[in-house]
Amino acid sequence: MEEAYYEVDLKGNLTFFNAAAVTNLGYTDKLMMGLNFREYVDGENANKVFEAYNRVFLTGESVKGLDWELISKESGKIPVESSISLIRDVKGKPVGFRGIIRDITERKRAEEALRESEEKFRNLTETAQDAIVTINMNGMITYANPAAKALAEGMAVVGMALKDFLPPDSVEHYYDQIFDLLSRGFSETLSYESKIIKTRGDYPLYFDVKSSTLWNRGEPSGILLVARDATDRKRTEEEIRMMAVVDTMTGLYNRRGFISLAEQQIKTAIRADKKMLLFFIDLDGLKFINDTWGHEEGDRTLKRTSIILKNTFRDSDIVARLGGDEFAALVFDSPELPEVILKRLHSRTDDENAASDLPYKISMSIGVADYDPSVPCSIHELMSRADQLMYNQKKGKKQAGKYPV
Q1: Residue 405 has pLDDT above 80, yes or no
Q2: What is the mean pLDDT of the chain?
Q3: Which of 42, 216, 295, 375 is 20 to 30 A removed from 148 (C-alpha atoms)?
Q4: Where are the domains of the chain?
């Protein structure tokens, strides 16, 4: 629609107009001249236009961007946007109004389509079980659906930074990486796993997350994040993984777990130039206990032994049941001499025996081998040395007749 120019007197009667006004209203020049504005608008729009005329008359200030609907004789209602300004005579006296009218049909259609799209998006997100949030380029949350708000437990999520919900060790890996890609116009959907600063019981919450770029006029404007709770799956995976490296009876690492962690610890020792101690421990007389009091009592003895070891070594030490009656503990960069640790182990064992009314005493044969990073060796070589030292001690006990039961 070509812009229509018009002039009206103070009563709103047309006094001048261009050809575009004639074309769009669908009247002849003769019929339009003197036509009152109320003749080509409905009641609601007539009031809106009248109020605009009245405001311009009283203030002398122009009105711009007035949205209303005119009625074309041929096309029916047409959404338009107009400007209105005051006409004064040579003495400055108000005598009428002039303005420009623009057809905004396409704009209104686009706005309606956008509104419907936003409504559809909102309906989907408001009922979704997945947490859905949008984030601007500054990392601030601009929208959060009910599922996302529920995770925040009453906090006003909108306006907060995404970083506030991520553990520090996750921010650099997920957050900064995503925004770096977006700032360069990365438009593909990213999928990854993340956790947030909240727990279910004592377990952190994990999510499978998909993120997509939000665009505005060809430029990235933020991120859409869809997060699905993966905590139960993660917990199951963790339990399966732990079953592979943990001895189910004692809760200590098993041989596989010990070897894997010890190999990593050796690399750390070499890199940091730190020494280590390996304690190779054999529970004396387990076969005798099994044969005399049954395997159930033997299992109980293994559990009691594991408790003694846990109470002797640090949380940072790698303590394991290698299988059968064999245990091991790898001690990294300890300020204590091996004799001090052995003394504490014997003391914990004596305490356990003193508190028990069972007819046998727990006893262990122990070999201690030190690891010097300047003379590196494999964990298997270190275990072999400690095992031999343990065997020598056990052999000496038998020769001296010092058997545990």
Answers
A1: no
A2: 87
A3: 216
A4: 4-109, 128-235, 246-400
Instruction: Give pLDDT tens digits for 285-322.
Output: 999 999 999 999 999 999 999 999 999 999 999 999 99
What are the Cα distances from residue 337, in Å, to 179, 268, 343, 395?
50, 20, 10, 24
What is the pLDDT at residue 153? 75
**CA distances to 124, 143, 209 from 121, in Å:** 5, 12, 18
CATH of domain 4-109: 3.30.450.20
pLDDT category of residue 25 using cuts at 50, 70 and 90: confident
Residue 351 has pLDDT above 90, yes or no: yes
169 has a pLDDT exceeding 80: no
CATH T-level assignment (fold) for domain 128-235: Beta-Lactamase (3.30.450)
Nearest to 332 by CA among 273, 246, 252: 273
Q: What topology does CATH give the domain 246-400?
A: Alpha-Beta Plaits (3.30.70)
Higher pLDDT, 176 or 104: 104
Q: Are 322 and 279 in contact (CB under 8 A)?
A: no
